[in-house]
C-alpha cells in the first residue's frame, strides 16, 4: 500500500509505502529461494514485519525453462502488523518467460514487472509454451496493464563478472544476486546483511572466496544499475513496523517446530527421539533436528513411515519423548501404530505437515485436508488430541503444548501443520528460556500397589519406565483389563475402556484455554477457522470490522478436544462462516457437534486464501447471498455465485454441476 | 534383592500361558527363563518386544518389562526402546509370518543397523494364530486353507535373509534341542543384533514339520552341529562330513579315504561360508544348527550416543537460549 509522502534519496525520489509484496520467480536452478530468503532476512533486520510464501516445483529438476520448473518466493514486508504473504504482488521479478507466464496474473494492475530480458529468446519462449513468434513483452494486454521493465539481467551479470575468474556456469549462477541487488535498490534496502551472508556462507563455510566475491560484486552491480540507469523513475521505502521491542529472528514453521520440540525435551528433562522417514514438506524438521546433536537430540531416519512411528512409540515406552513427523500419505501409513499408542496410552507426538492430496497429490503445495484423517482415520473409536498451529512462529508454542499434553496425559497428540506454515516465515520474538514453564513429569517408582492401568483424577495411567525395579509390566495392542492392564476380552470391560479413553481426551479440555473471540462476542457473523488460515481470516475480519460490519472471528488451535466454550461461541452469532483449505472438514464437525448452520468457503488450489476471497465470502454471507448453498469456492481469486458452476466433463446431461450441494 | 538369587521361576509372570498344549513355544519359554536366570539378568532391565502371532504372546509370560506391539513392527518398536535407553537388555520375539512377511522390511533394517537387540524368530512354517495358512517359510506345494492346491510360493531361508541383511550374529536352533540354551546365551553375549532362528513345532497346524530334525532316531543324520574351528561332521556315528567340491558343498562319507582335514571347517567369521551353510537344506543336506556367523561391530545406539558426545564436545553442550538465538537475530529498539 502506498502511504504518500516522497523524499529524495540518492538521485531518485523515494515514495513511502506502508507495505509491499515482492515476488521472485525463476527457474528452479536460478536461486530464487535464496534471493527471497535474503530479501526477507534483510527486511526483518531493518525492522519490517514480514510474511513469506515460498513456492517450489514438485520435481527437483523439472525441464529447465518450463512452467513446471518455476520456483517462486513471495514476501510481504510492512510498516504495520501483517499476517499473510499478501494477495497481490507489487513487484514481480521474472527471470525467464516461464516465470513470467506462471506469475504475471498475481501482479496488481499497474504493478512493477522486472523481466530478465536476456532470457526472452525464441527458444525460451517456446519452452514456456508461448506460440511461435509471440512475445508477451510486446503484447499490449501486458504492457498496458503493468509497468514492465526489461533488464538484461543475465547479460549484465556476465559483464559484471567478466574478470571474476569464474567459468560461465558459475557466473550464470550469480544472476539471482544481481536481481536481488536491483530490488534492494528499488525498495531502498541496505545490502550489507546479504554481503555479510555471502561472505560467511561462500567465503567461510564453503571456503569458496572467489564465489563469495563474485556474488557480492554482482549484488552491488545490480544495486548500482538501479541507481545509475534512467529506467526507474522512483524508489519505494517501507518504514520500520511498530513491532514490540526485543530481540527477534526470522523463523519458518518447520524451524519453529523443531525448536519447540527441543525446548519441550529440555523443559521436561527428557531426551527428544525424533523418528521420521523423508517426506515433503516435513523433511526439513528432520534436517533441523539432525543438526542438533549437541542439544542431545536423537534423530532416527527410519526405513519407512511405519517404522518411524513405531520407533517413536518404543522411545515413549522407554521413557523419552518419541516424536514422528510426516505428511498426509505418511499419516495414512502410520494409523495402525497410532492406535497402538492410543491403546497402550503412551505419550507420542505425530507431526503432520499437510500437503495437497489425496494420494501423492501436490507434494509441495499447501492444504488442510487431513483434519478428518487425524480425527477419525484409524480403526475403531480412537480418541486422541489434535492441535494446529496458526502461524509459522506458533509452531514453536504448539510443539511445546503438544509435548506438555502428551507427556502429562499419556496420550498421542497430532500436530496438524501445513506446507504454508512449514516453509513460510515470520519474525519471532525470541523467548527467554527461563520464562518457559517446566513440564513436570513423574514416573512412578513405588511398586507398592502399582497397577499399570490405574488412573489419576485426569484418568491418566502411570508411566513406569523400564529400568525401574519392581514395576515390571506388559502392555500391548490387545484390550486391557481396567486397572490391572491384563489382556481382557470381557464385553463390559471393553465398553468401559472405550468410555475411559474418550473421557480421558475430553478431560484435556479442562487444561486448555477458552476460545477467544476477536471482536464482539455476538453479532451477525462469526468467521471461524483453524490452522494456517489464521492470517487471511484475521486480516479480512479486521477490514470488515473497520468497515463497521458486525463480524467477529475465532481460531481453533485445539481441535480435539475442542475448547469448552466453543458451542457457546458459535451459537452467539446469527451466521457462521468456516473458511478452510479443504472441502469442509471443520464445517462438518461443527454442524454435527453443535447443530449450527455453518457455511463454508472452501479453496482446494494448493494455495492459502487471499484476504480478498475471505472478504468476499464475508459480504456474501452478510448479504444473505449464500442462500441454500452450504459452501462456495473461490475461482480465479474471486468468490462469485456464477462461478460455482463447474463443467465436470462427464458425458451425462447434468455434468455441469453446481458444486455446492 | 540380589540378582544372583533369581531362578527361572522368578522370570515367570503371573499370567496363564495360553499356547496350545504341545506347542513348541513352551520349550522356548522355559529355556529363555533359565537363560535369564543363568545370565543373572535383571528383570527390571530386561524388555521383551514382540509383534503379532502365537510367538508374539511371549512377553506376557516373562516377568520383565514387555511390549506386545503390532504385526511385523517389533523391530521398529524395539529400536525405539534401544535408542531411548541403550542400557536396557532388549529381546525381540517374532515368527515367520510376523518377521519375514508383514515385517520383512523392518527385520532387514534392524539387522543392517546392528541395533543391540536379540531377535528370536520362531519358525513354524505356518500361520498359527490365523488358523493355518501357508507362510513365507512353508515349503512349495504346501496344502493349507489358503492353498488347497498347494502353495506356489518359493520359501525363504530366514538365516540367508539375516546374513544378506548384514546381521552381525546369526544362529539357528530347535525348540526342543539341547543346544537352544547355549545359542541363547551366545546371542545374549553378542554386542549388536543377534538373530536366532528357532525351529518351532506348531502342534496344531503344522505338527512334525521338523520331525526330521527332532526325531531321536534320525535327527543326527539330518542336522549338523556347527562348532567354530571344527570340521563339519555329522551323523549319529559322526561318520559323515561336508566337503567343498567345485565351490559347492557335498556330503561325503568319512573313513573311506576322506580325512577330517578334507572337510570344510567352520569359521564363524566367514560370511561366505555362513551363506553357503544357510543354503544347505533338508533333504539334500543336513541342516546346520548353532552359530553360523558372528563378528564384532559397532552397534547403532552406541554410534548415535557417540555422535551426541562428539557434537557436545565440539560445539559445547548447548542450552536453549543458545538455540533460540542461533541464526540471524536482530533487535527492535524501544
Ligand atoms: S497354533 Fe500352533 S503355534 Fe500357535 S499356539 Fe497353537 S501350536 Fe503353538
Question: What this model shows, in words?
Answer:
The complex is a heterodimer of chains A (661) and B (334). Chain A has four domains: 14-238, 3-Layer(aba) Sandwich (Pyruvate-ferredoxin Oxidoreductase, domain 3), CATH 3.40.920.10; 249-435, Thiamin diphosphate (ThDP)-binding fold, Pyr/PP domains (Rossmann fold), CATH 3.40.50.970; 442-511, no CATH class; 517-647, Rossmann fold. In chain A, 35% of the residues lie in helices and 22% in strands. Chain A has 21 helices and 26 strands. In chain A, the strands form six sheets. Chain A has a seven-stranded mixed β-sheet with strand order 12-11-13-14-16-15-21, with helices on both faces. In chain A, strands 4-5-3-6-7-8 form a six-stranded mixed β-sheet, with helices on both faces. In chain A, strand 15, helix 15 and strand 16 (412-418) form a beta-alpha-beta unit. In chain A, helix 8 (192-205) runs antiparallel to helix 9. Chain A is globular. Residues 1-5 of chain A have low confidence and may be disordered. Chain B has a domain at 8-209: Rossmann fold. Chain B is built from eleven helices and twelve strands. Chain B has helices spanning 25-38, 74-84, 96-102, 104-113, 158-164, 180-189, 211-214, 219-222, 271-278, 300-315, 320-324; strands at 46-50, 65-68, 89-95, 117-123, 169-174, 194-199, 223-225, 233-234, 240-245, 248-253, 287-294, 329-332. In chain B, the strands form two sheets. In chain B, strands 2-1-3-4-6-5-11-7 form an eight-stranded mixed β-sheet, sandwiched between helices. In chain B, helix 1 (25-38) crosses helix 6 (180-189), helix 2 packs parallel to helix 4 and helix 3 (96-102) crosses helix 4 (104-113). The mean pLDDT of chain B is 95. Chains A and B meet through helix 1, strand 10, helix 10, helix 12 and helix 13 of A and strand 2, helix 2, helix 4, helix 10 and helix 11 of B. The complex binds iron/sulfur cluster (SF4).
